[in-house]
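User: Need the bound-state model for pyridoxal-5'-phosphate:
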Amino acid sequence: MPVKRKPESQMMSYGYKPELSEGSIKCPIFQTSTFVFKTAEEGKAFFEVAYGLREKNAGEETGLIYSRINNPDIEILENRLTLWDEAEACAVFESGMSAITTVLLEFLKPGDLLLFSNPIYGGSDHFINKILTKFNIQIASFKVGQTIDEIIQVVEATGMADKLAMIYIETPANPTNDLIDIEGSKKVAKHFSNTGKEVYLAVDNTYMGPVWQHPLKNGADLVLYSATKYIGGHSDVIAGACLGSNELIKRVKTLRTFLGNMASPNTAWLLMRSLETLKLRMDKHAENAAKVAAFLNTHPKIEKVYYPGNIKETDAEKYAIKKRQCLTDGGMISFDIKGKEKEAFAFLNHLQLIKLAVSLGSTESLAQHPATMTHADVDPESKKEFSITEKMIRLSVGVENADDIIYDIEQALENC
Ligand SMILES: Cc1ncc(COP(=O)(O)O)c(C=O)c1O
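Assistant: Bound-state model below.
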């Protein structure tokens, strides 16, 4: 019986055949725009399959055509990514935003209703509120803590329940680390689905990454990543990914082909390099974050710490959600400093080891000020409602020695 290896054991070789690349142990960068067909008949056959003009014959592989449609680096990367989420298929993109926007554009059309959780990453918030609405796509949102019945009410109150086409959630939410119930969201999607229409659930899983949370297992139809974050992990690449069933990813890839926002061979190669250490890095991120959170929890200059590890068993509802969907407490921590923007900026300006930069999930620790940086564009009322205040700092805990990270935070706090 074949051994079922863990994903981390397969990240070095899965899907790659050295004999097709001069025996090279690593998959080379296939830096090519197009591929030579052996015959015109072969080219015709490849296009028929790629453009869905006919189903594949038994044993037929999708042929390589043109790097906007497919490329060995992109395909091998996609195959490797499916292992973590146990997904049927994956599509990779040149950014997380292109993965998110392609999914929203594919599954929504003018007149449809999109329901989404709040808060979400500022870029996704902008696209939903300011761009989708220009195409007459209606939007409604719910917030953390609302029950399934209350969320159903939110949809009913729009008067457009029959037009609900997609539910989009981000959990844990950026930057507040709020957990949104994936299974509960699926129940809402099912409530509004009928024989003629399926309401899809898409989950942005960037914050936990593919090692610590598997939304497809909790009922999601599509899982999305900014692969710039933990998957890439080294602050040197912008990329995105979407995973789900063969049927849905085929739709996503078709739109990707015509939007032309696929990942480049070089990006795919960098991500394959990164995947080899994903599990190791993520274990260290989580271990360090637990130590940093413990330090922040008792510091007199810190007012509040937003970290899944702080959810108490007595907070039964939230604790149950965490148990159902998160395998660790993650590597992201937000916290409120006692004071206002002045104190928050003083803290950021005095960091020495931790870098003052947006993004997250990198080997180096990163800190930023969501209210004026990643979430600057979110409307002021919403920011207030979701506690994205001027005293909030978001920290992405890196893989440095935890004592050094804590020392850096301690000395910066002394200066504010
Ligand atoms: C949760 C989340 N989703 C999506 C994105 C967008 O990804 P990208 O910057 O790779 O386009 C980000 C970026 O910060 C993010 O934090």
